[in-house]
Amino acid sequence: MRAWQVRETGEPNRVLQLVDTPQPEPSWGTVVVRVRAAAVNFADVLLCQGRYQVRPPLPFTPGVELCGDVVAVGEGVTDRRVGERVIGLAALPRGGLAEYTVMEAATVFPAPDSLDDEEAAVFFIGYQTGWFGLHHRATIQPGDVLLVHAAAGGVGSAAVQLGRAAGATVIGVVGNERKVEVARAMGAHVVVNRAREDLVDVVKDVTGGHGANVVYDPVGGDSYQRSTKCVAFEGRIVVVGFAGGTIPQPALNHALLKNYSIVGLHWGLYARRDREAVAQAHSQLTRLANEGIARPRVGERLPLSEAAAGLQRLAEGNTVGRLAVSPGLG
Ligand SMILES: NC(=O)c1ccc[n+]([C@@H]2O[C@H](COP(=O)([O-])OP(=O)(O)OC[C@H]3O[C@@H](n4cnc5c(N)ncnc54)[C@H](OP(=O)(O)O)[C@@H]3O)[C@@H](O)[C@H]2O)c1
């Protein structure tokens, strides 16, 4: 079968190689799937660069999440069956950018019927992360104002839809005009193009000076710093990621003076420590998907052969909507 492999770490378009490799066998607690579609996530960029929190042994195949059909079930797996269409996490070092891969059964769930293969492939991490960030970490309430950075991106666009579903007024921040349209189509009430406008002015204007109750930040750096200037009294800044490349060093005296909270979010830890909570979130998210409220926007559907180029575009911040790679396209 064909699979992309990283044999040394570096920029995705330099280090990824498409190779022929044997089809995997299931081990204890895993299932083998035929990949229908795999998502391209920022985590895959970091994996290629050797900068992700998990460093699989070389060579490895990136592609942390996917949609596939179960073709073999390992020992110890009781709740999955051959032929089932599923979504969830790949069991690295075997990722989803391949024709077949292995998934940890504990993080495999039925794919929502209302989503096609590419939509289902990009659904799991983004919406799970949004659910835990907004509901568990930020306890978002109807009527809150939610500020979402990278609102046309993977986790950001999911947070826009889930924030709106929770009854919040959503302000999205994006990097260019094309992304303004995407963030608006995802449901943001107001969209700030950070290349042209200052988000602090817009948030203060929209909220009559009160600020945003919840900030969802997958970018870090300057985006985080600007958020602290427009977070509301008793607001919550959810630290989701550092796609901008700079990890902020927050001034805790500022958090004290303005009475706001800085809350970390590592969704993968929920997946490891509280599978029941992840399963409950999956049923809520499946309901929202089937009601048409939660639906990822797939900007590009790529054949397997174009995965490395797609990953590189994501690394450079040049993608709009989600990228999915489908081996069936060639
Ligand atoms: N905490 C968790 O559990 C969790 C879970 C999933 C993902 N994450 C993290 O969330 C972040 C976003 O992941 P994603 O897959 O959803 O990616 P993404 O949002 O699709 O892509 C990153 C976006 O960040 C913005 N950005 C701002 N400055 C950038 C820069 N210097 N370089 C590249 N992008 C820049 C760009 O949007 P604009 O141009 O519109 O600003 C870009 O589209 C990553 O850091 C990822 O590791 C965390």
UniProtKB/TrEMBL annotation:
Gene3D superfamilies: Medium-chain alcohol dehydrogenases, catalytic domain, NAD(P)-binding Rossmann-like Domain
InterPro entries: ADH-like_C (IPR013149), ADH-like_N (IPR013154), ER (IPR020843), GroES-like_sf (IPR011032), NAD(P)-bd_dom_sf (IPR036291), Quin_OxRdtase/zeta-crystal_CS (IPR002364), Zn-ADH-like_protein (IPR051397)
SMART domains linked: PKS_ER
Superkingdom of origin: Bacteria
Any one Pfam family match given in the protein's UniProt record, by short name: ADH_N
Domain Enoyl reductase (ER): 11-325
PANTHER family, per database record: QUINONE OXIDOREDUCTASE-LIKE PROTEIN 2, SHORT-CHAIN DEHYDROGENASE/REDUCTASE
Protein name: NADPH2:quinone reductase
Taxonomic lineage from the root: Bacteria, Bacillati, Actinomycetota, Actinomycetes, Pseudonocardiales
